[in-house]
Amino acid sequence: MSKREKFNQDPSIQISKMNVIIPFSPDVPCDSNGQRMWWAFLASSMVTFFGGLFIILLWRTLKYLWTVCCHCNAKKKTVHRITTGDGIKRVDKEDPAASEVGWMTSVKDWAGVMISAQTLTGRVLVVLVFALSIGALVIYFIDSSDPIESCQNFYKDFTLQIDMAFNVFFLLYFGLRFIAANDKLWFWLEVNSVVDFFTVPPVFVSVYLNRSWLGLRFLRALRLIQFSEILQFLNILKTSNSIKLVNLCSIFISTWLTAAGFIHLVENSGDPWENFQNSQALSYWECVYLLMVTMSTVGYGDVYAKTTLGRLFMVFFILGGLAMFASYVPEIIELIGNRKKYGGSYSAVNGRKHIVVCGHITLESVSNFLKDFLHKDRDDVNVEIVFLHNISPNLELEALFKRHFTQVEFYQGSVLNPHDLARVKIESADACLILANKYCADPDAEDASNIMRVISIKNYHPKIRIITQMLQYHNKAHLLNIPSWNWKEGDDAICLAELKLGFIAQSCLAQGLSTMLANLFSMRSFIKIEEDTWQKYYLEGVANEMYTEYLSSAFVGMSFPVICELCYVKLKLLLIAIEYKSDQRECSTLINPGNHVKMQEGTLGFFIASDAKEVKRALFYCKACHDDISDPKRIKKCGCKKYTQKMIYFEEDQQLALSPKKKQRNGGMRNSPNSSPKIMRHDPLVIPGNDQMESMDENIKKYDSTGMFHWCPSKDIEKVILTRSEAAMTVLSGHVVVCIFGDVKSALIGLRNFVMPLRASNFHYHELKHIVFVGSLEYLKREWETLHNFPKVSILPGTPLSRADLRAVNINLCDMCVILSANQNNIDDASLQDKECILASLNIKSMLFDDSIGVLQANSQGFTPPGMDRSSPENSPVHGLVRQTSVTTGANIPIITELAPLAKPGKKLPVISFSQDKSSGTSIQMITELVNDSNVQFLDQDDDDDPDTELYLTQPFACGTAFAVSVLDSLMSATYFNDNILTLIRTLVTGGATPELEGLLAEENALRGGYSTPQTLANRDRCRVAQLALYDGPFADLGDGGCYGDLFCKALKTYNMLCFGIYRLRDAHLNQQSQCTKRYVITNPPYAFELVPSDLIFCLMQFDHNAGQSRTSLSHSSHSSHSSSKKSSSVHSIPTTNRTNRVKSRDSRDKQNATRMSRVGQEKTWFTDEPEDTHLRTIQIKPVNTLSINQVIQFKSTSSLIPPIREAEDEC
Predict the structure, then answer these.
(1) Do residues 795 and 717 touch, judged by C-beta distance below 8 A?
(2) What does the buried/exposed string (b/e) look like for 357-374 if buried means 16 or more CB atoms within 10 Å of the residue's CB?
(3) Cα 696 to the center of its chain, rounded Å
């Protein structure tokens, strides 16, 4: 039975004095007259407050008077002592007082510690007081449903007992606060003290009078103001915004509830001067509603104050409440609106891995990453991607996250904050990927930021696997300083400058290779085109990617070429490399190792295929079950006992390969080069009888300390600088021209990463292409510190936009022209970032050259084909003869082909001229670096590429004439799923960079020379990429209508050359003659793919130990015995049935050399825009000394005009 029902059981009592009716129950011993006693409760609070205030003031007054009196007495005594001359007697009378003060001070300090939350006890006490205050407020809410004043028995009323216990505790806490207070007066006037004065004494009065008065107990709501302090004590609130928000909310709510309590009191009681007759029954929550309507100035009028006290209070409350409402509420809403939308924590899902992606998070970087990471060709990607960035995503990026909401989550925060790392569960993440801003103006600052991110993550969780992008190669060394950085546990740094320049350098050796490799590690969907266009064949190759898979036990004991042929013919897979375990159980990646390596159990293979499911065939293949199957799609997992016992282990390891969080990663170039197996090759490329050892080369030629690169003593930059006239007299040919834009303020791009692949030790010295840099001398001086140990490097100070400079370096006779810029990221407008490279490219293409220079240069180097008399003007290159300028085999061998003699009865001649007319700049082989992908449309004015076309679908990229750093974004996801892919790419691209070499460069920032020991020379024995021509040589019979599969098998069986693509003329599929010399890339063609004579084949060629002595060309032509070419390149000797072994005598070569030197003076007239002040280089020729002639030509020219001579060649 409720209290209100108890009160209504008995009749009301009429009060004669005040005519007020109050509830009365005979069960409660209360005033028989029913007289109200509210004044007693109020008086107890007022007496306590004013009494204490009076005592404090009285004490201060007395203390002040006592101090004044004592001060006056002290002055009198001092004056008396001075006048009488009495000495000051030391009387230690203040010792008791001092001890008394010390005791009071200790008690005061103890009380202060107890209430200041400095200790655990203090924090518990503070939190307990706040919790009990809220509990007392809740009791008030419960009692507010009863009348304002009622008779209650303390021993029977449970709520009153609880309230009494709470207030006893408040009284004790008040005593502690009073003791700890320094200023007792201000303490007495504090809000919390006033709350205690008007809530604690009435409880004791209610026990004494056996009646309860609701009174001013609503003041407990003011304790809510301290809510933010309590949360700070508990370390719940840490940010300024959260503290401010809680403060505003607590002040607003406490004021609201307190004012509602006062209205509830006066409206339910009435005015005292009206004998409480004007009261109205309002519940507490109706008063709360009234106050909110009043503060918001709405004022519906359904509830309003009737008493004079209530209305008077409302007048003043509107002034303060309206101001508070108008200021607090908007600020609260703003703070709530500004709260981090993505400020939650990641909840891990059982059975599902997650990775954390941070760094440079933008729409472009995220879309490129997700497009490759979540590609459908990947086999069941059950990984959730968690992005962490300190800036909230914009609308476009937010929409991208919503489209992938099932696999992508975004959280706002920083990896430098351990709290944010805990939010994304970095300790349980499978890996952390850090993206770099490729377009930043300061690459070193961006790398420093990413290194700091690595340090923060590793400091929080040392065992987390990190894959980070780096912009500059030299900054990779800083990662080695992190103790927990361990590449063996999967940590990887993808250096964009190293790979970008490595790709471009490889294109100088085999044009189009950069496009092919970029497409291999990028996930591209197959786009089917029915029309017979070049895009059809290109896109069929684009659909191929690089995968790894363990080889079946059926391959154990077989040699690599046999397995490679079986995989290609039967499994429709292209195996290009394996992970080989040496006797010391050290793993190394061997690319096309030849027939000397036998397959082992659990060998990991690197395959080129269209999707991951196809690669499973290499794992499932069983000779007993699948030997007679012709359809590779039918090769499934069989139930052979042998397979079951031996291959389950490989399947488990294969699963680890897809998520190698803690797998031991021993990719080939991750180990010391000395750990690779030393295999003595007996290559069929070696000509029988030519078995001399390169003892002279070993003693004279220099390599770096690792044996991976050619090396020479450091040279001053002044010794390699060419003037325009010197470059013109040198008549450069077969070289690489690097047009670079940069100045003294430009960021370094790291040209060493470009030069190193071109100076790999698996080239012989005479095979090295001369490199000529054309650009600002101030910029090149800054780069020279990393280039001064590489041979055959020259600098022409100038600008790539000057045609005079370009003609001086014979750009029309170069093998490749590379256009780079160090100023690209200094421009805000994306469309203008590539303006210099585009202008240089168009400038070169629009240049015209006198074709006689090409004929004269060819004659001077012995390029004249058979049947063409040098002295006969009527014999021109158009009479059935085509001069191929840059077709190369593995050693970059220029081949001159006479088409008419090769035409056999019944053999169709090609209707396409695949010559490159050097009279126009459009024929110059060129590769241009771009920053903005959309700018590729400006490189070729005759293509039909749409501006919105993806980069890989454009003609310049397909032809290998354009390269953008954005294609390297795919390496992040490719490395995560299989870090062996990055190892293979580095091996192919960098020319042999190893962790040992990286550590050396970190220490000295330069290559260190080393002696040619057997260990270092053994490191030269590695494959390299080459291009093989089909219109001549031992494969000429397959070049006209033959099958690519037959070529693949023949090259593999006969020469251990592994073919993996075609570089085909763009219009080769047409049946009409075309003068277009553009080519495009076809990756991994099928077996029945038809070849044409003009095709160039990408292949992995073995290192030829005897190429240093052999000078035999890969050609059936009668001129193939010439020992050098336009490119000053060596020749890999392939035995052919009709090779003519003709060797020129030393006398005839000397005679030709003298003739060529006499023609040097005529070179100046070939350049129409050459400055008039150009002067010829004076060279004195002494015919009596043949060796001196050769030395003059070798040292006075940057690219040899004569066949390489052993004595001159061997000197760096």
Answers:
(1) yes
(2) bbbbbbeebbebbbbbbb
(3) 48
Is there a contact between 356 and 433 (Cβ–Cβ < 8 Å)?
A: yes
**Farthest CA pair distance, the chain:** 152
The structure tokens listed for 535 are 């895009």
In the block, tokens 């098998």 appear at 1049
Report the residue count for the chain.
Answer: 1212
Interval 846-903: pLDDT, tens: 999 875 444 444 333 333 333 333 333 333 332 222 333 333 333 333 332 223 333 3
List the single range of 54-68, 770-784, 1179-1193 with lowest mean pLDDT.
1179-1193
* Per-residue confidence band for 1196, with pLDDT thresholds at 50, 70 and 90: very low
Please state, as a whole number, how many other Cβ atoms lie within 10 Å of the Cβ of residue 169: 17
DSSP annotation of 1177 reads P
CA distance 499 to 988: 10
- Band of pLDDT at residue 24, cut at 50, 70 and 90: very low
Encode burial over 171-184: b for 16+ CB neighbours within 10 A, e otherwise. eebbebbebbbeeb
Pairwise CA distance, residues 356 & 360, whole Å: 13
Token pair 């508990």 is at which residue? 234
Of the candidates 423, 441, 374, which has an alpha carbon nearest to the alpha carbon of residue 401? 374
3-class SS at 882?
strand
Q: 208-222: per-residue pLDDT in tens?
A: 888 878 888 888 888
State the Cα angle at 1080 between 1074 and 1086, rounded to 5°: 110
Helix/strand/coil percent split, the chain, to 5:
45, 10, 40
The predicted structure's pLDDT at residue 220: 87
Tokens linked to 46: 């007022």
Alpha-carbon distance of 686 to 438, in angstroms, equals 46
The tokens describing 1060, both together, are 């993996």
Classify residue 273 as exposed, middle or buried by CB count within 10 Å of its CB (0-12, 13-18, 19+): exposed
Sign of CA dihedral 144, 147, 149, 154: negative
Domains of the chain from N-terminus onward = 1-220 (no CATH), 239-339 (1.10.287.70), 353-485 (3.40.50.720)
Per residue in 913-972, pLDDT tens?
444 445 788 889 999 999 888 888 888 876 666 677 888 888 899 999 999 888 888 889
Nearest to 1001 by CA among 1013, 1011, 993: 993
Q: How far is CA 573 from CA 130, 576, 606, in A?
A: 73, 10, 10
Alpha helix (H) ranges present in 436-522? 443-460, 496-509, 513-520
Residue type for 551, please?
Answer: L
- Could you give the 3-state DSSP secondary structure of residue 312? helix
Q: Cα(1102)–Cα(742) distance, rounded to whole angstroms?
A: 38
CA separation for the pair 583, 275 (Å, rounded): 109
DSSP state of 652: H
Structure tokens at 747: 């960021």
The set of residues, in sequence order, having a beta carbon less than 8 Å from that of 414 and lying 6+ positions away, is: 388, 390, 420
Beta bridge partners of 819: 739, 928
First to last CA, the chain: 111
Pairwise CA distance, residues 1087 & 1191, whole Å: 50
- Going by their DSSP bridges, the two strands 896-898 and 1058-1065 should be labelled as unpaired
Residue found by looking up tokens 């073919």 in the block: 1059
Q: Would you state the structure tokens that stand for residue 315, as one six-digit string?
A: 């007048």
* pTM score, whole prediction: 0.69
DSSP line for 97-163: HHHHHHHHHHHHHHHHHHHTT-SHHHHHHHHHHHHHHHHHHHHHHHHTTS-SEEE--TTT-HHHHHH
User: Could you give the angle at the alpha carbon of 123 between the alpha carbons of 122 and 129, nearest 5°?
Assistant: 90
Task: Find out whether 846 and 918 touch, Cβ atoms under 8 Å.
Answer: no
